[in-house]
Write a structure and sequence with these properties.
The protein is of the alpha/beta class and about 240 residues long. The chain has one domain: Bira Bifunctional Protein, Domain 2 (BirA Bifunctional Protein, domain 2). It is built from five helices and eleven strands, in the order αβαβββββαββββαβα. Strands 1, 2, 6, 7, 8, 9, 10 and 11 form an eight-stranded mixed β-sheet that branches. A hairpin with a 2-residue loop joins strand 7 and strand 8. The longest helix has 18 residues. The radius of gyration is 18 Å and the shape is globular. About 35% of the residues are buried.
Length: about 240
C-alpha cells in the first residue's frame, strides 16, 4: 500500500514532533525507487517546513551512477552495453558503483536547521563515517581537497549530494563486504590514482548487518536526530510513495 507521507508529519498539539524518520530496507532497492523516495520527502519538506526529516539506510542492486557534469571518459565500458544499469543523476561528483555489500545512506535533511553551508554538510557526512570506523577500531582518513573517506590510501566510502532550497538528497556509500570487481569498469570518482577498498579487508567477516547499527547511531549523534520508525513501515521490504499525488 502506498504511504501518505503527509500523515507521517502530523502530531498532536501536545506531542513533540519527531526529529527524523528512519527507514531501513531489508531487501535490495533499485536506484530509481530510492530516488523517488528522496524526492517525495524533499517535496514534503518544501510544503511543510516543520515536518520531520528522514534518513534511509539500504543496499542497492548493482548499478553505476554519474553525477551532474560527470565525464563519460571515466566509464571503461561500451555505453551501449554496460555491465550493470547506468544512471545520470542530480548529485555532485563523478561516477560511482553501487552493489550489495555496500551500505548506502540517504539523508533528506533541512540544512536551515543546522548550517546553510554545503561544505560544512559534506564534512559532517565524512565525520559520520569516521565515527563509524572508529567504533570498529579503524582510523578513517580525509584527503586534502577531496570528498570521501580513505583507509591506508584506499577509498572505502564515496559521498555525493544534491540540495534544493537547503533540503538535501543523495548521500554516502560505504564499502563493507562488497565485490570490488565492478569498480574496475570505471574510474571511481574520477580518481585514477586511488584504489578502492572495503572494510572487511581490515576486519575479515565484517558484514553490513554489523555496520548498519553503527551508521544509525552515528547519524543520530552527528545531526541530533531522534529516530521515529512507524510500525506500519518497519517491516516493509519495499517502502512506496503514491507517485500519482
Amino acid at each position: 500500500m502506498p504511504v501518505d507521507i503527509s500523515k507521517l508529519g502530523k502530531t498532536s498539539a501536545s506531542a513533540k514532533p519527531p526529529t527524523a524518520f528512519l527507514f531501513e530496507c531489508s531487501e535490495l532497492v533499485p536506484l530509481n525507487t530510492a530516488l523517488a523516495w528522496q524526492r517525495q520527502w524533499q517535496q514534503h519538506l518544501f510544503a511543510q517546513p516543520l515536518a520531520p526529516q528522514a534518513v534511509w539506510l539500504l543496499q542497492h542492486q548493482p548499478c553505476y551512477t554519474l553525477g551532474r557534469g560527470a565525464s563519460e571518459a571515466n566509464l571503461l565500458f561500451d555505453l551501449n552495453n554496460p555491465p550493470a544499469a547506468l544512471f545520470r543523476i542530480d548529485r555532485g561528483g563523478e561516477v560511482t558503483h553501487h552493489l550489495p555489500g555496500q551500505l548506502v545512506a540517504y539523508p533528506v535533511l533541512d540544512l536551515r536547521r543546522y548550517q546553510t553551508d554545503l561544505h560544512w554538510y559534506l564534512r559532517q557526512l565524512e565525520q559520520v563515517l569516521i565515527d563509524v570506523l572508529a567504533v570498529l577500531g579503524l582510523a578513517g582518513e580525509r584527503l586534502q581537497g577531496l570528498t570521501g573517506l580513505w583507509l591506508e590510501g584506499r577509498k572505502v566510502a564515496a559521498i555525493g549530494v544534491g540540495c534544493r532550497r537547503w533540503i538535501t538528497q543523495h548521500g554516502l556509500a560505504l564499502n563493507v563486504d562488497c565485490d570490488l570487481e565492478g569498480f574496475s569498469a570505471v574510474v571511481p570518482c574520477g580518481l585514477a590514482d586511488h584504489s578502492v577498498g572495503r572494510l572487511d579487508q581490515w576486519i575479515p567477516g565484517l558484514t553490513v548487518a554489523e555496520v548498519q547499527p553503527l551508521m544509525r547511531q552515528s547519524f543520530s549523534e552527528r545531526f541530533g536526530l531522534a529516530w521515529q520508525t512507524p510500525d506500519s513501515l518497519v517491516n516493509q521490504a519495499v517502502f512506496a510513495f503514491d507517485e500519482s499525488r
